[in-house]
Amino acid sequence: MKYLKTTKIAALAVLLLTILSCSTEPVIGSTVTYFPEITLNGASTVFVPLGSTYNDPGVTATVNGATVEYTSTAIGVNRKSPKLDTSIQDEYIQTYKAINADGFANTVTRKVIVYKTGDLVNSIEGVYTSTVARNGSTPSAAYRNMEYIYIWKNTDGTYEISDAFGGWYSIGRAIAGSNTPGGKINAVNISTNTFTFPGNPMTNDYFGFPANLLSLTVNPTTKTLVLSCDWNTGTAYVFVSTLTQVQL
Question: For the Pesticidal crystal protein Cry22Aa Ig-like domain, which residue ranges apply (predicted)?
Fold first, then answer.
């Protein structure tokens, strides 16, 4: 009987401890968070004439169906303006951002292209599609009619191209940060295709190695430019870019 009584007492003690243990555990609640949803108003690519006003179409931002505020920032892809400046020709990436009450964010982007279209008699400024051959070969459709290559005019009177390789790596292969910038063009006489290239030598941003613009031929009738650039990585490459001006 004594053994049975002891066993009952031990069992009651264990039960009491179990109850106390359960009663001291915290109550864990759950919450539902709704992430922001953002939809672009208007086109995903907008063309804005140089010097004009950009009328931002904005976005529609909601959280669980309710409209919320959003912010907008922009940066110039090639000329690195920290804001969308319609006095500077460039491609801008405009980023819209909305945040919910729990601090979760969502973003969408729009491409804004500030442009000036030269007549290819007095000016070669413009937005261009590009078809590129490297060492005489254009291996696939990825290297044809690529969008976009830009030529703008600098304050010193020279022109400059956004990628001296015509977008071979940056657009054709979609390798981020693989432009070859700094391709300055001094137009001695556009009508006689007399140009010098004061930006030589340049360097590819991704792979390195020196590159040099070799020649430029302008055809105002067909609205095309043919630009040649060499690149020596230990292997010699020549990129020939046929640039077709977009008529905006």
Answer: 38-114
